[in-house]
Automatic annotation (TrEMBL):
Residues 249-271 are annotated as: Disordered. PANTHER family: LYSM-DOMAIN RECEPTOR-LIKE KINASE-RELATED, PROTEIN LYK5. This is Uncharacterized protein. InterPro entries: Kinase-like_dom_sf (IPR011009), LysM (IPR018392), LysM2_CERK1_LYK3_4_5 (IPR056562), LysM3_LYK4_5 (IPR056563), LysM_dom_sf (IPR036779), NFP_LYK_LysM1 (IPR056561), Plant_RLK_LysM (IPR052611), Prot_kinase_dom (IPR000719). Residues 195-238 form the LysM domain. It comes from Dovyalis caffra. Keywords: Membrane, Signal, Transmembrane, Transmembrane helix. One of its GO terms (molecular function) is protein kinase activity. The keyword Nucleotide-binding does not apply. Gene3D superfamilies: LysM domain (3.10.350.10), Transferase(Phosphotransferase) domain 1 (1.10.510.10).
Amino acid sequence: MYPWTFLHCICIWWLLPVVLLSPSVKGQQAYVANRQLDCYNKAFDEITKGFVCNGVQSSCQSYLTFRSMPPYNSPVLIAYLLGVPQSATLIASINDISSDTASIPTNSQVVVPVNCSCYARQYYQHNSTYELKETSESYFTVANNTYQGLTTCQSLMSQNPYGDRNLYRGLDLHIPLRCACPTSNQTALGVKYLLTYMVTWGDTISSIAQLFGVDEQRILDANKLSSNNIFPFTPILVPLTTNPTKIAQKSAVPPPAAPSPQTPIVPVGGSSSSSDHKAVYVGVGTGAALLVLLFAVFGFLFWHRKSQPKTLPPDSDDFTALPVSDSKSWSLSSHGVRYAVESLTVYRYEDLQRATGYFAQANLIKGSVYRGSFKGDTAAVKVMKGDVSSEINILKMINHSNVIRLSGCCVHEGNTYLVYEYADNGSLTDWLHSNNKYGILTWKQRVQIAYDVADALNYLHNYTNHALRPQELEDQQHSFGCQLESQGC
């Protein structure tokens, strides 16, 4: 018995390091998933701030991928953006481009060689710099739009001394780009380089493995992935045994359309078939009764409005002072605002005065938002200071059944007036925190609202050209909320 026990100990002692250091057990880096989208969530800082320094070397040759997008659509321009101006000719050579100044077709994937180093003994990165071009730029837009996800807003905020609200045009930012060096396990398997590949629509682990001619399991291990769930605009590490060459371009896969407004009612627990039918009958009957009541109320209000005399300019007691910007140097003639409002209705200031009763206190909804009537249609008018053309440009592209739509704007004496469709039933915030002022929501209604809000947030984050910052999302919901017509409220 004792000899066998001793032999077992010898075997375990010999096999233990083999098991612990096996490439299939120990991964390289944690996949960021979509955690980088929440700039202010510190729970995942170890993942969102960069790839940890766990390789054999503290500095190594690495590679990034970047999609050619104007104005960064030539090897030399991409090289300067990514902090490798001396490598413009090499970029052209690797990607089989005629010269370092030649234009690259839009959306083409470009392989960029970089030197990857361990920063502060914590994260691997390649450093670049970027000068802010617009006042509307933020850490979020620089990370996810300009650099296409090769860095994160979390790493930008941690490595730059400027607050996220103190950025201005002409400011130089330090840009840490995500890269990594192979671990001892990967080196033992013949891996020489790690390439940071940016996932796009339609990509899978299998398709990425085929693109670079590597084993699918090695990509899973390199990113500590146990499944094929990956997201667009997130970095994936691809282990390479040789220098990469030009990536075979595939046809661009367009993002999916926003989900249909007819969202299904979410079930809340099992029940018998008869009780389900009964619930449907009750719901339909209640909805029909509320619809009839709603039409009756609208009819009364319409008749009452027509019977009232025309609104005259209010007395000083009823007038609400509006904020006035110090700057009057911009107007609708500027290029940025012309582009922003090209698909919106441009109102005259006099129209807004008449619609809101000269911004009467009685029409004040909340903050600087007023109720207005335009040719019988009710709208919400929000007063904002200064040039908000960038905000208009983002909001005008949002088209979702659960998000209030921007329909028009006006510029007057340095202020901007945004005209939104009116939420007849009040804002989502009011319904959830009104202490029964607006009525009591049933459990099914609350579940449906949660589903619709999640659907709208998913649309704002993933299906719009410009993702909104968390503060912008909060402002959008608190000022106007999501539409609740489908909830029977």
